[in-house]
Amino acid sequence: MERIYVFKRFERFWHWSQAALIIFLLLTGFEVHGTYTLFGFESAVAYHTTAAWTLVGLWVFAIFWHFTTGEWRQYIPTTEKVAAMFRYYLTGIFTNAPHPFKQTRLTKHNPLQRLAYLFILVLINPLIWITGWFYLFYNSWKDWGVEWLNIEYVAMFHVIGAFMMLIFLIAHVYLGTAGHTPTSHIKAMITGWEETD
Amino acid sequence: MNKLITQLGGTFSLLACLLFSANVTATVDAAPSSGAAATAAAPGEADTAKPKTGSTADHSKFEELDKDFATGPEVTEACLECHTEAAKQVQKTKHWTWEFLNPVTKQKLGKKNLVNNFCTSVRSNESFCNACHVGYGWEDDSFDFTSEVNVDCLVCHDTTGSYKKLPGLAGHPNYETMEWPPKSGKFREATDLKKIAQNVGKTSRDTCGACHFYGGGGDAVKHGDLDSSLAEPGRYLDVHMDADGLNFTCGTCHLSSSHEVSGSRYAPTAADDQGALIRGKNNDRNPTTCVACHGNAPHPGTSVSTAKLNAHTDKVACQTCHIPEFARGEIATKMTWDWSTAGKLDEQGKRIKIEGSEGRDSYDSNKGNFTYERFVIPEYVWFNGDIKYTLFGEKIAEDKVQINEFLGSADDPDSRIWPVKVFRGKQPYDIGNETLAVFHTAGNDDSAFWKNYDWDKALKTGMKTQGLEYSGQMKFVETEMSWPITHMVAPKDDALECAQCHKENGRLQAISGVYMPGRDNTPVIDRLGFTLALFALLGVILHGAVRWFMSKRS
Questions:
Q1: What is the ipTM score, two decimals?
Q2: B48 belongs to a structural domain
């Protein structure tokens, strides 16, 4: 067994604060959506808005970090071993087969992770951000010349984004237990050190 | 800065209260010594001074008023000796003409022309209804609208509280001692016109309220947001009129010039996005709006919540959140009125009255059945300020008549969501003429409904005064009439909470054309989203369970 240092301090801070914000945004967002009552509508709206801006701030730092460190390359998609990854999750993982992907400092995400994160990066996030901003600045539509927009559809796509994020969250949390040991990925995300075979 | 102004305002009104309360003990009739009257006396030493009104004239010193007037018009004549233009000004206003030409719809409105679903019509009942006309002697069509002495100055400018125009006297107060209410065994003393004339002053909640609190034939009956509890309201009932606080009179908002009182129920300002009105910069805007003082971003602060509240002003009228209920005072407002049951008498053939809830009548032979309610949740409508009335003579085919219709829609930038009182009734309809009927209610003649309870005779006379021949066939139709809710503004802590509208089946459930988070969603997306999320959850649980099971086995 070896240990490699995969997640640097900022990356870990980014991950966990982002996780907390996203969970909180889902919680408050679905309350605003009318699914349940938890904080009360007024507070839910205020929390949701504040958390959203906080996440924007976090992202500014994260983008800066990715570009200055070159870590953005970790998200370049690859088709190599994707099928092997699927097979592993569908069968190999049950029979203790070896993991098809060898994690290194330069490729810390497996091919499925790369694809999933890229999907979030180019599809779910833009969908949520753009609809969220239009939603937030509803009163400025006239000044922006986008009165033809329909708040009902803006809200609908925002909700679609929220559902996709919710489903990602469920899968992501579960796959967090699919490492070398059930807790090795989670430990790595906390300490930065991943145990591999 | 705002805080400072509020505090200063509070201090001033407090001072005014102190001065006033200190002075009520002073005898009004005491001969004022010129020195004491000239300087504003401090509270406590103000033995001979009158309540501070801000006026530069003490009317009790005027020779013109130092006489025993026999009638109201005589008083007016004296007033006009100095206030030469006053009557001419009054005669141009709705208070005098009881007519209003809606500039948009071109409908001829005003009390003189409208049929409502309370007492239904002024016509043929003038001597009764016109107790609230700002004039003397309007009992039929022969009334001289050009006579200046017929203008009643006192009804608005009395400060003694003893001036009262009684129904049946065509706008006059009683000049002789008179039994009032009729057959009550109680007597009202002859009106002391000299005392009243010598104490005239600015209008007050009492003078405006003398008519406007009692619209529809009794306290709180008509409007729902105007009743006698506003004469001396507490802060909870009306944050502006609060007698111990800001102490607004009606005129504080309903700014007047040349006797033309601003603010109109016939052509209200439903939306104003031009910000607070700066002194001297009128631009013909209606000063009687919330925006005129509070502007378009009335919620102070920079928090997410206040920003969101300010963002609501493009769709929601201030009144919708800030007047959470109407009839929030002591007195219940009438909500329904069924004329079809009127006229039932007891075995002796006498008028019946049955008391219902809230200490108000639920039945009166003269009027039929009613219901009254307090703390009523308004209904809400899109409203752009235009109101379309169903006027007398208009042909109506339906059994349900909208006496007035508030126009507006979500797409109309001049529309806001407004609270309204919807008053529902049943009233006579002339089948032959296919129109809402006018009937003769009050009077000492044979055909008055309250005399003989005979619809035929009452309708014949009533329709005739409106220039139509009664067809002889009548029925009762259901009618609805809406009234904008704009008074009885609650303190901010009592305003609506977001979730009272932003939920399913909330207050604005019936409002269409807007997407409201919490109320609205796209059901197919919600179903699909939650189903997929559930599958994902079940999937990972199953996957985990198999993993666990397999690892145990190995």
A1: 0.93
A2: yes
